[in-house]
Amino acid sequence: MKQVKFGMAWQCYGYQCIDLPDDIDVEDKTSVIAYIQGQWDDIPLPEGDYVSGSDELDEEFIETWTV
């Protein structure tokens, strides 16, 4: 029997919520985005749902063998 093991990547989409400091104007979308980007590494990933059709083959990781 021949088998192949390969990597796959896919996307999920979810929502996250964080507190804004008092000095951020909630009407200024550019400032809000800049704040989020500044905190990005500390924001945990949200629960998410699979983005339909987003799966793709990782052609860099393919191993084959015979059993």
Brief sketch in words of this structure:
By secondary structure, the protein is α+β, with helices and mostly antiparallel strands.
- Following the backbone from N to C, one meets helices and strands in this order, namely EEHEE
What is the tally of beta strands?
A: 4
> How many helical stretches?
1
Q: What form results from the Cα inertia axes?
A: rod-shaped
> Between the first and last Cα atoms, what is the distance in angstroms?
5 Å
Category from helices, strands and their pairing: alpha+beta
How much is the radius of gyration in Å? 20 Å
Largest sheet: 2 strands, antiparallel
Overall pLDDT confidence: 97
Low-confidence stretches: none
Helical percentage: 10-25%
Beta-strand percent range:
25-35%
Would you kindly provide a written description of the structure presented here, covering whatever features stand out?
With 67 residues, the protein is of the alpha+beta class. It contains one helix and four strands. The protein has a two-stranded antiparallel ribbon. 0% of the residues are buried.
Key features of this structure:
67 residues, alpha+beta, two-stranded antiparallel ribbon, two-stranded antiparallel sheet, 1 helix
Helix-strand blueprint:
Layout: E1 2-9, E2 12-13, H1 29-39, E3 49-50, E4 56-66
Antiparallel strand pairs: 1-4, 2-3
